[in-house]
Amino acid sequence: MTFTIRLANAPVSWGIQEGTGWGRGEAWAMVLDEIAQAGYAGTELGDYGFLPTDPARLREALAARHLEMLGSFLEANLHTRSA
After folding, report:
1. Is the Cβ–Cβ distance between 9 and 46 less than 8 Å?
2. Selection from 13, 22, 19, 21 nearest residue 44 by Cα
3. What 8-state DSSP symbol labels residue 8?
4. What are the Cα distances from residue 68, in Å, to 23, 27, 38?
5. Average pLDDT per run of 10 along the chain, which is 83 residues long?
6. Which helix (H) or strand (E) element contains residue 29?
7. CA–CA separation, 33 and 39 (whole Å)
8. Every domain of the chain and the residues it spans
9. Total Cβ atoms within 10 A of residue 40
10. Could you tell me if 11 and 46 are in contact, meaning their C-beta atoms sit under 8 angstroms apart?
11. What is the SS3 string spanning 38-77?
12. 8, 44 in Cβ contact below 8 A?
């Protein structure tokens, strides 16, 4: 039996991080280009709104780079009882 391992990356590796504003100067297209150029198979959505929120536009951007969407990120406050 043969298995193929495919790796993905995420916008957070470029400093795109929720609640900080860090990395907002990075163009989403450049981040996807660099993920593809590095040989990764896909990405996650990252911070909401960094990648296109229109599904058709995002699908097109990923397909142009032969990338797959592998998941999404959701910030959840689990350490505060009232949350």
Report:
1. no
2. 13
3. E
4. 22, 19, 14
5. 92 79 71 97 90 95 97 81 70
6. helix 28-37
7. 10
8. 8-71
9. 20
10. yes
11. CCCCEEECCCCCCCCCCHHHHHHHHHHCCCEEEECCCCCC
12. yes
* Structure-token pair, residue 49: 């709104």
Specify the amino acid at residue 45: L
77 — alpha (psi -120 to 50), left (phi > 0) or beta?
Answer: beta
Instruction: Give me the amino acid identity at 73.
Output: F
Please, which residues have CB within 8 angstroms of residue 11's CB and are 6 or more apart in sequence? Answer: 23, 26, 28, 31, 43, 44, 45, 46, 47, 50, 51
> Whose structure tokens read 């150029």?
37
Distance CA 63, CA 73 (A): 20
SS3 35: helix
pTM exceeding 0.70: yes
In the chain, the amino acid numbered 10 is A
